[in-house]
Amino acid sequence: MPPGNEYAADQLKTQGNTHFKNGEYEAAETCYSQAIQKNSKNPLLFTNRANARLKLEKWQEVIDDCIRSIELLKENMKAFFYLAQAQIAINHPNEALSSALMAYELCTRSAQQTSNAATISALVLKCKKAKWDIRERDRIRRRHDLLADLEVKLEDAYKKEIFEIDEKVAKGDMGTVESQEEKSEIKQDWEKKVGDLRTAFALSDPEHLQKREVPDYLVDGITFEIMHDPVVTKNGRSYERATIIEHLKRSPTDPLTREPLTITELRPNIALKEACTEFMEANSGWVYDW
């Protein structure tokens, strides 16, 4: 590649970064695209454009950029992180969970990252819950054919409205910002209707139709499983004892905050342990599948 192209790509990347910081995501996307035309071998340009496209809710384009970036750089934390967000947005929780877990693994293995682990951990938990929610939805639907039929109709109506908005954007009849606002309102309305519908059916058959959930505070931030013997760090964050001790043997730092931490600073979290035990006993029929 001619040296001039690399320099031009860097200049365009800088311009794109400025637009991104100013919230001008379409302009940022354009600059990053032009930079890629100059230097298509730089994986960071693809992750930059993917981030701009995340803001624009161009989910498939985000996925394409992330895959291309990963092809150029295998251990690519940002690409897996953005990829997971796009995959969860298009309701592919299995793929999203795999991508988020890879981002989390790369983050915790890196000595340079200082602030990303907690954010990625939250995304992993979100993906895991989304995967569980689909299983729950299917379980509840199997219990009641009428509920399944009504949910499908609500979902079809929601998808139709989203498709109509995308068509307006493609024709130039609606701007990106306006379309995002309308999509957000439509999604909130759809989720509320589905929630109200499930609540109504759950009240009629609480034993089988009540949604089963695991509270976030019971979940270990390293393994993402329900804790059995939680300990608390000096800054108030709790982990499963065996998991955090194993981590501290390799690295004397909090895995999520990266603050210095030693095994001697861990203390039993008695109240949380009681809550975990009570939850496990009350939900033993299904909780091991979570």
Note the run of SSEs as H and E.
Answer: HHHHHHHHHHEEHEH
**Count of helices?**
12
CATH superfamily of the largest domain: Tetratricopeptide repeat domain
pLDDT averaged residue by residue: 89
Q: By helix and strand content, what is the structural category?
A: mainly alpha
CATH architecture of the largest domain: Alpha Horseshoe
Distance between the termini: 50 Å
Number of strands: 3
- Please state the CA-atom Rg, rounded to the nearest Å: 22 Å
Shape: flat
* Integer tally of domains: 3
Strand order of the largest sheet: 2-1-3
Sheet having the most strands: 3 strands, antiparallel
Give descriptors for this structure.
flat, 3 strands, three-stranded antiparallel sheet, 12 helices, 3 domains, 290 residues, mainly alpha, Herpes Virus-1, Serine Threonine Protein Phosphatase 5, Tetratricopeptide repeat, single chain
Description:
- The mean pLDDT is 89.
- The chain folds into 3 domains: 3-129, Alpha Horseshoe (Serine Threonine Protein Phosphatase 5, Tetratricopeptide repeat), CATH 1.25.40.10; 152-204; 216-289, Zinc/RING finger domain, C3HC4 (zinc finger) (Herpes Virus-1), CATH 3.30.40.
- It has 290 residues and is mainly alpha-helical.
- Helices cover 69% and strands 3% of the residues.
- A 3-stranded antiparallel sheet has the order 2-1-3.
- This is U-box-domain-containing protein.
- It comes from Lindgomyces ingoldianus.
